[in-house]
Amino acid sequence: MSITKTLFEAAKEQYGALGVDVEKALATLATIPLSIHCWQGDDVGGFERAGAKLEGGGIEVTGNYPGRARSVEELRADLEAMYALLPGAHRLALHMSYGEFGGKPVDRDQVEPSHYRGWIDWAKAKGLKLDMNSTFFSHPKASSGFTLSSKDKGVRDFWIEHGKRTREVSSVIGKELGSPCIHNVWIPDGMKDYPADRIGYRRNLEHSLDEIFEKEYPLSQLKDAVESKLFGLGSEAYVVGSHEFYLGYAITRRKLLTLDMGHFHPTESVADKLSAILLYCDEALLHVSRPMRWDSDHVVTSSDELRLLAEEIVASGRLPQIHVGLDFFDATINRLGAWTIGARSMLKGLLAALLQPRERLLAAEEEGDWFARLQLFEQSKSLPLGAVWDYYCAAHDAPLEREIIDRVHGYERSVLSKRR
Ligand code: RNT
Ligand code: ZN
């Protein structure tokens, strides 16, 4: 601790000279839980069928690096290993396809709270809070490319029932764990080529969602969120649940809007959208990701986009209403490593944002001194963030940045490499 502490004290002085209260920033960071996605651990496979692989539905996982979690026990072990590498207390985002079905086929319109009992008990034992996602993909009834917006009423009704059941499960989770479970809806519906009836599918989606959300649950148990997308594999020309669709839907139905960083045109900034959306939506869910060409789900790193997003999260003054979820999956590298890099990058981004000289920046802007504002932004980029981050990690019994490789390799040797 001593060198870490010495470097931290020196860093504190540097930040202090710019008017930044480092201790306050650390205290605030400790109150921000990440909602970490379970699906990085098994390539979005889930536990409906043994060795299930993601199929259809506009998401693609590439790679076959050994060590993928093949059972709920393996996934929980990996999750515990991952949380041990993070400072602070965080949440877990599950998908409905990760229920425990006792080897029996349980279709999506049959899922019940009992199938998630094991997760609730495990979460209680570990002091974790859970979030949930309906699973509208990897299923024969999604293979047409349409679910809630389908022109086939039978298909729509099947998925509406799934959505309703997910909300019931989520409300039980939220109630039992004493923290509202955020239930996110993302559907893959769309078309490869130009549709003739764009509005028809959107009308169907609007009505299906209204049916799913008909039953009211206390907000202390359940909060619903809706996630848009720009395009997917096989839905290049048209996505029913576009940004405009869900923005309108979330505002008129008072739902959370989910912004996935990989679901917009590359020159659009999710960071910029946040402050506009928060004027009209009470809360928002983020799916922090890193788009790369056609893929929307690369492992999150300390990119400019991440930095700008974290700055907006902090600047909004609405930290409790912005739920920071992660959404990426890389099957070409050690999955524990992928999770860890993504989650720690997000936390580091938030820390950097909390350490910005906000007052000086705002004053420069008020005075119209845009040179000084730009200089302050630049200056903060070379301040000793790493020293503060290391200290924060040590204070929360999490490894320092330079210890991560050994820790991940160690888990690979002792656990992951035995999964053949
Ligand atoms: C897909 C959406 C969605 C999924 C997860 C697995 O493009 O981003 O959030 O990644 O539900
Ligand atoms: Zn997403």
Helix % is 40-55%
CATH class of the domain at 33-298 and 327-340: Alpha Beta
Net shape:
globular
How many β-strand runs? Answer: 12
On the 0-100 scale, what is the average pLDDT? 97
Order of helices and strands, N to C?
HHEHEHEHEEHEEHEHEEEHEHHHHH
**N- and C-termini, Cα separation:** 39 Å
Count of alpha/pi helices: 14
Backbone structural class:
alpha/beta
Strand order of the largest sheet: 1-2-3-4-6-8-9-12
Low-confidence stretches: none
The CATH H-level superfamily of the domain at 33-298 and 327-340 is Divalent-metal-dependent TIM barrel enzymes
* CATH architecture identity of the domain at 33-298 and 327-340: Alpha-Beta Barrel
List the bound ligands.
L-rhamnitol, zinc ion
Explained architecture:
- The protein is α/β, with parallel strands linked by helices and about 425 residues long.
- It has a domain at about 35-300 and about 325-340: TIM Barrel (Alpha-Beta Barrel).
- It is built from 14 helices and twelve strands.
- Strands 1-2-3-4-6-8-9-12 form an eight-stranded parallel beta barrel, surrounded by four helices. A two-stranded antiparallel sheet has the order 5-7. It has a two-stranded antiparallel sheet with strand order 10-11.
- Helix 8 packs parallel to helix 9 (about 305-315) and helix 9 (about 305-315) crosses helix 10.
- The longest helix has 25 residues, at about 155-175.
- Zinc ion binds near residues 260, 287 and 327.
- Zinc ion (ZN) binds next to loops.
How would you summarize what this structure contains?
This protein is α/β, with parallel strands linked by helices.
